[in-house]
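Subject: sequence -> structure tokens, single chain

Hey, anyone have a minute? Need the predicted structure for the following. Not urgent.
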Amino acid sequence: MFCADYIACFVVHVGIVTLPITTQRIQCYFPQVFLQSQKWNNMSKAAMGYGQNNVATPIIAGTIAGVVGALGLAPFDILRQGVLPNASAWTRGMSVVPYSATFFGMYFTCRNPESRKSQAIWAMGSSVCAGIVEMPFDKAKRNLFRAPWAHVLANVMYAPFAAMILIAYDTSYLKIMTRQQEPWKQIEA
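Reply:
Had a minute. Here:
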């Protein structure tokens, strides 16, 4: 995965999991929206691996983030256009989908949100696994690096950075969710 793909996936994932928080804020001003916002809030927590042990929801959220991120960047992806000139603009960046599904899905399904050690282990594990899962699909990197060992080396060098960003993202989300659990208290204050 290249940097723009990575950023796009995070932006879309943030949108998927924070839309329920925004909806919950609205319900403070409009109580009739409460039931709908409760459903969205539960979906947001499930997408980030909180609450019930639902394996599918974090994987689906990661897949959606990958698809939307790849499609959103497709017209602007000049690196892949140069490396894969004969490929369709919409299919060039689709290697991001298995990466994103594995990256977000594995991490948010397996980590313990209260343990930094668990977060670090699962962040590193999910970023390494995502790089491995992406390799067969990433024709651009394969053509760019030529040698298979260079492709593997690029993914291994990228894994610690991806793990640190994922832990920061998870920690930030946990702080936001902690503040948002009782939003009416913020309005009264």
